[in-house]
Amino acid sequence: MTSVSPETQSVHTDDLGSLVVLSWRGTTPDGDVPYLLACSPGDGANGPEATSKAIEQVLTGGDVETPAAFTSDEDLLSSAAHVVLPARSLRS
């Protein structure tokens, strides 16, 4: 499990709220590519807009190696829960 150190953190943690991060690797003609999908219900202390901005800052900030290490961790990928759920309808 990776974490962001408080010294380099420029995001107010109250704004993050709940965050679900899914990682996987996809095979492409250029080799394996790591992916992250971050989802939040927008339940941060200052509402959905602040939550969205805080998550964007975390995911696009100077430490690119931490997310890359998270998505490429073989032990994490092999021990993580794998669930496939059918989408019955789309919400707008």
Write a compact overview of the structure shown:
The protein is built from four helices and two strands, in the order αββααα.
Structure characterization notes:
Helix content is 35%, strand content 20%. The chain has 92 residues and is of the alpha+beta class. InterPro entries: DUF5949. It holds the Pfam family DUF5949.
Strand fraction equals: 15-25%
Largest sheet: 2 strands, antiparallel
Please give the radius of gyration in angstroms: 15 Å
Secondary-structure-derived class: alpha+beta
* Distance between the ends: 33 Å
Residue stretches low in confidence (pLDDT < 50, at least 5 long) are none
Which series of helices and strands comes N to C?
HEEHHH
**Count of separate DSSP helical elements:** 4
Shape field: globular
Query: In which order are the strands of the major sheet placed?
Result: 1-2
Overall pLDDT score: 75
Helix fraction, binned, reads: 25-40%
Q: How many strand units?
A: 2
Key attributes of the depicted protein:
two-stranded antiparallel sheet, 92 residues, globular, 2 strands, alpha+beta, 4 helices, DUF5949, single chain
Write the layout of secondary structure elements.
Blueprint (H helix, E strand, L loop, with lengths): L12 H4 L3 E9 L2 E9 L7 H14 L4 H8 L1 H6 L13
Antiparallel strand pairs: 1-2
